[in-house]
Amino acid sequence: DWVAGILILCLLILAVIQVTVPRRLQQVFRSVALPYYVNQLEREGNLLSERMSFSLGFVYLTSLSLLLYRIAVYFVPGRELPFSGWVLFMVILGICIMLYVLKILAMQFTGTVFKTTRLVHDYLVNNMIFNVVTGIILFPAVMVSLYINDPVYIWISCGIVTILLVYRFIRGFIIGLSNTKYSVFYLFLYLCTLEILPLLLIYKAVIQH
User: Fold this and answer.
1) Which among 28, 75, 81, 106 is most buried, taking Cβ atoms within 10 Å?
2) Tally of CA atoms within 13 A in the half-sphere of 32 that contains its CB
């Protein structure tokens, strides 16, 4: 079925990355725990433009979309869903990609306007690192939740995303503190708009159903 095809594609991507650039992948995982390795990643290349980042970014968006699809199918009655099957998944994936691109464009725009391009670059690198790691960790949990009809695996997947998002938010806040031109309040408001508001909108949409 289409779910198996998507999972196999993601597995192939992960296998190719592990074979071709295992050291680079290890650096990404180390960067989550130790910010020192972020500088090492930057010295050895631009993470934002590497093929590995695009490939693993696809795994991240696909895993997240599959999780949202699983939540919608499990918790929302079928008659209330506007689409079903692979069409519903593609709609969710399209929305996730659109929001992801809009978020990057908004950050780059504000970086240009407020002349904080370096700070925005560091923040985008930090986000990319956490997206890559989230996608890799989330993928097996989502795969299990798709084939075992037990909500506990859905909650485990949601827990993984939540923990990594909170950690990413804290790291992003620390990066923002390095810019002393703006107050902590405005920094917090800015991060909440980009990171937390989209999640609250998704949560509200699910609760209303």
Assistant:
1) 28
2) 19
